[in-house]
């Protein structure tokens, strides 16, 4: 049975809305997107007896003025979907500010039930709130709740159900006076809207008129597309605006918000707040902040927290990752044993199982990282991190909140760009978020490290630690400078104002953390099973086809046959196998591209072997090392043990310390691995993911050529 | 005697009352949406390690904003 009623949960960020949502719907929820935007839409089911209701958790917002994409998506949902009832979750501790949103919901006319949440904190402070009085004044049900422990849940559901039934039919907007000037204009605009039936099927007339006076760009644009009434309304709004400018030296939207706060103050004065001489709500948070955001102690603690989080993610994640790797290795062997030697086996083992296995290997990292990230976020600490670092990151066109994605992506070497890109979700401003996503893959992720170690072992064996440290610094410099470059060229314009709340520290609920973490992991796994599988197969095909022709194969076969008698036969046969693998690789599509690119890549000092390895690196950066192994006819090289390969490379005249340096720079900068690319496409768009592939590779090549060519002058 | 100045000029722990919001458009709306309107009492409770952004206490909560945003808020100090 499909649900007949829809409840929407609205409220400020950090008001406990999502905790209430989890308590209402339990695990029966799923996450989607609002149409056309990357704002998450969380939906769940709730059944009471035989009735089934849909519950939608709207993004946190302070106002319905459509300032951010979050607020716009929430407003569109309210107006277009017309939920049966909005449960407005209000942090009872910040009643005055929270009611600013409630008043706007009431002005829209949607049936509202107020949930006065966090009543436990209010009682502890000795503050007395009269919910009944508030209910009587506003004309809507008011229920006291403590979402963390489920207090008030049943009453809230009962009230919301009853109110939704009672208020079925047209919405009943609340009318607030905004002073004589605005009120008169509103009345005239309303009359005009009603007379022309201008968008009246979508918005209440007075609300629409108010949006015109507030200068709401979204509504104004919509109006222009819907007929000539828009011109009249804009003209009326402009006249009023000039009048208010002349008489009050103000703007209509400022006057409107002043009156809303005035209305709220009047409501609270009518006996809702019984005792205002209460203890400070956030005294505890304040004393914590004196340490945690202290000029010296703050950054030190922050570094320790980031480092610990990183260590936990990658040391704890190592075990399940190893198990998964071993499991897929076993599966590969088992399937390989069942299938006859040939293309099908190669496809199943090297293409499908190795590809998907490599991707699913990231799942433990994502789970552990997101669990900690959700914890710090819900605790309120992430807001402090953004606060402390904003000044630094702003210089590069980023946001204080960009630090976490960077660290996770490999700001401390060994991270991973996939969870790093996903961690950018905590950023609310779209431009800074996009640039963070574009820059995060420059960090020294765990898969690039074997490449660096291989080259260090071959050319800088005496200074391994120093070179690795310089690589890390270079990665940070690359991420920050490229971010700056993109902000000055392709993602231009003002970012959102930084202004945000520093929420009081609150311990998150385990249940909420588990639900969020599980969602992330599931979204990622679904992707691995579809897009990533397809790309794995493509990469496999590019490195396998076209195969050697009959003649070449026969030549290797003959060679093998010739050594049967000798004592070291096995060894020699292996060597022949490896040379055959080299020939196959060189003959394949990827190999041909590598050879064809040699004339260009020579500028940076790369030969065809390096080219193929780098192409393979687009599948996963670890592949760079194993492909180089095949290209040097050493067979499959274990990325953990590259001694032989580094000797071979050091001895190869095509390589020099200078070309190694150029190759390291290129490895930092060039196209992200395809798992990251798919993640970027999911988090931003395919257009931007494609941009990253092309632009990063171009930039990497320019830098590599510059290093190689300038270095040769000395 | 009350004295009008920019919010940026306040010292840590100094109290003031908002006189006017000088920003219009998006920024002005955001500032008002978060509860800063003429007549609101604000106290500077801290500054980030690099002196920017600034943390403000108003009503029952803490806000943070960059100095460049605080420039748009005109306040009266009480001393």
TrEMBL record, chain A:
| Residues that coordinate or bind Mg(2+) 2 | 23, 25-26
- Tell me any Pfam family this protein matches: FeoB_N
Protein location? Cell inner membrane
InterPro entries, sorted: Fe2_transport_prot-B (IPR003373), Fe2_transport_prot_B_C (IPR011640), FeoB_Cyto (IPR041069), FeoB_GTPase (IPR050860), G_FEOB_dom (IPR030389), Gate_dom (IPR011642), GTP-bd (IPR006073), P-loop_NTPase (IPR027417)
Residue limits of the FeoB-type G domain? 4-166
Keyword annotations: Cell inner membrane, Cell membrane, GTP-binding, Ion transport, Iron, Iron transport, Magnesium, Membrane, Metal-binding, Nucleotide-binding, Transmembrane, Transmembrane helix, Transport
Tell me the membrane topology, using the record's own terms.
Answer: Multi-pass membrane protein
Positions annotated to bind Mg(2+) 1? 22
Reading the lineage from the top rank, the first entry is Bacteria
Which GO cellular component terms, listed alphabetically, does the Swiss-Prot or TrEMBL entry include?
Answer: plasma membrane
Transmembrane annotation, as ranges: 291-310, 347-376, 396-422, 434-460, 466-486, 528-548, 660-681, 688-711
Q: Which SUPFAM superfamilies match?
A: P-loop containing nucleoside triphosphate hydrolases
Binding annotation for GTP: 11-18, 36-40, 57-60, 117-120
The GO molecular function terms of this record are: ferrous iron transmembrane transporter activity; GTP binding; metal ion binding
Instruction: Kindly give the PANTHER family that the UniProt entry links to this protein.
Output: FE(2+) TRANSPORTER FEOB, FERROUS IRON TRANSPORT PROTEIN B
User: Which family does this protein fall into?
Assistant: Belongs to the TRAFAC class TrmE-Era-EngA-EngB-Septin-like GTPase superfamily. FeoB GTPase (TC 9.A.8) family.
Functional description taken from the UniProt entry:
Probable transporter of a GTP-driven Fe(2+) uptake system.
Q: What is this protein called?
A: Ferrous iron transport protein B
UniProtKB/TrEMBL annotation, chain B:
Q: Which Pfam families match?
A: FeoA
Q: Which residues form the Ferrous iron transporter FeoA-like domain?
A: 5-77
InterPro entries registered for this protein in UniProt:
Fe-transptr_FeoA-like (IPR007167), FeoA (IPR052713), FeoA_core_dom (IPR038157), Transcriptional_repressor_C (IPR008988)
MF (Gene Ontology): transition metal ion binding
Keyword tags: Iron
- The entry's protein name is Iron transporter FeoA
Q: Lineage of this protein's species? A: Bacteria, Pseudomonadati, Thermodesulfobacteriota, Desulfovibrionia, Desulfovibrionales
């Amino acid at each position: 049975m499909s649900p007949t009623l829809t409840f929407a949960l609205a409220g400020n960020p950090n008001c406990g809305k999502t905790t209430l949502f989890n308590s209402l719907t339990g695990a029966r929820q799923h996450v989607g997107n609002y149409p056309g935007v990357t704002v998450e839409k969380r939906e769940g089911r709730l059944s009471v007896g035989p009735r089934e209701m849909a519950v939608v958790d709207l993004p946190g917002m302070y106002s319905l003025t459509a300032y951010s994409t979050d607020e716009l998506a929430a407003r569109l949902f309210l107006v277009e979907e017309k939920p049966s009832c909005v449960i407005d979750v209000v942090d009872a501790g910040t009643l005055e500010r929270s009611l600013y949103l409630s008043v706007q919901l009431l002005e829209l006319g949607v049936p509202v039930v107020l949930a006065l949440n966090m009543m436990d904190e209010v009682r502890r402070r000795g503050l007395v709130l009269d919910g009944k009085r508030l209910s009587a004044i506003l004309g809507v049900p008011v229920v006291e709740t403590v979402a963390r422990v489920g207090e008030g849940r049943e009453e809230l559901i009962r009230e919301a159900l009853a109110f939704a039934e009672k208020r079925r039919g047209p919405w009943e907007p609340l009318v607030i006076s905004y002073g004589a000037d605005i009120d008169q204009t509103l009345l005239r605009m309303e009359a005009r809207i009603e007379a022309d039936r201008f968008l009246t099927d979508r918005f209440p007339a007075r609300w629409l008129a108010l949006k015109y006076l507030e200068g709401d760009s979204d509504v104004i644009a919509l109006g222009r597309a819907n007929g000539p009434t828009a011109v009249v309304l804009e003209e009326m709004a402009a006249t009023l605006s000039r009048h208010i400018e002349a008489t009050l030296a103000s703007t209509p939207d400022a006057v409107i918000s002043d009156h809303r706060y005035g209305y709220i103050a009047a409501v609270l004065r009518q006996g809702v707040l019984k005792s205002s001489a209460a203890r400070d709500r956030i005294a505890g948070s304040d004393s914590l902040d004196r340490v945690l955001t202290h000029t010296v102690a703050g950054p030190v603690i922050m570094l320790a927290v980031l480092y610990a989080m990183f260590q936990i993610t990658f040391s704890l994640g190592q075990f399940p990752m190893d198990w998964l790797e071993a499991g897929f290795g076993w599966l590969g062997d088992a399937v390989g044993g069942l299938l006859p030697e040939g293309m099908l086996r190669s496809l199943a083992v090297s293409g499908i199982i190795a590809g998907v296995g490599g991707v699913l290997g990231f799942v433990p990292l994502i789970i552990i990282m997101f669990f900690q990230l959700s914890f710090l976020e819900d605790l309120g600490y992430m807001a402090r991190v953004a606060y402390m670092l904003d000044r630094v990151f702003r210089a590069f066109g980023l946001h204080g909140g960009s630090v976490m994605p960077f660290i996770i992506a490999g700001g401390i070497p060994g991270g991973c760009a996939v969870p790093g890109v996903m961690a950018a979700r905590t950023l609310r401003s779209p431009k800074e978020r996009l640039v963070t996503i574009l820059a995060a893959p420059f960090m020294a992720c765990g898969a690039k490290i074997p490449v660096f170690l291989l080259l260090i072992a071959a050319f800088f064996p005496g200074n391994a630690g120093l070179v690795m440290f310089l690589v890390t610094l270079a990665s940070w410099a690359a991420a920050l400078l490229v971010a700056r470059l993109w902000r000055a060229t392709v993602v231009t314009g003002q970012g959102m104002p930084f202004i945000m709340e520093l929420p009081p520290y609150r311990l998150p609920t385990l249940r909420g953390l588990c639900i969020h973490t599980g969602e992330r992991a599931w979204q990622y796994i679904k992707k691995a099973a579809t897009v990533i599988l397809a790309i794995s197969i493509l990469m496999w095909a590019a490195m396998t086809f076209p195969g050697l022709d009959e003649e070449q194969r026969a030549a290797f076969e003959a060679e093998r046959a010739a050594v049967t008698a000798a004592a070291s036969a096995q060894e020699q046969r292996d060597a022949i196998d490896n040379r055959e693998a080299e020939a196959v690789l060189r003959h394949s599509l990827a190999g041909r591209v590598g050879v064809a690119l040699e004339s260009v890549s020579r500028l940076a000092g790369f030969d065809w072997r390096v080219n193929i390895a780098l192409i393979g690196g687009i599948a996963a950066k670890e592949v760079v090392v194993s492909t180089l192994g095949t290209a040097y006819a050493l067979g499959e090289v274990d990325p953990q043990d590259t001694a032989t390969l580094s000797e071979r490379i050091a001895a190869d005249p095509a390589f020099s310390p200078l070309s190694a340096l150029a190759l390291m720079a290129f490895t930092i900068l060039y196209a992200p691995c395809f798992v990251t690319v798919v993640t970027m496409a999911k988090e931003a768009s395919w257009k931007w993911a494609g941009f990253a592939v092309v632009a990063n590779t171009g930039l990497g090549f320019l830098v590599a050529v510059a290093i190689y060519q300038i270095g040769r002058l000395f | 005697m009350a004295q009008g100045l920019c919010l940026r000029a306040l010292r840590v722990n100094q109290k003031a009352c908002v006189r006017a919001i000088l920003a219009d458009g998006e920024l002005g709306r955001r500032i008002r949406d978060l509860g800063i309107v003429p007549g609101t009492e604000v106290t500077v409770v801290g500054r980030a390690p690099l002196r920017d952004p600034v943390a403000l206490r108003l009503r029952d909560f803490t806000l943070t904003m960059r100095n460049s945003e605080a420039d748009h808020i005109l306040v009266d100090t009480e001393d």
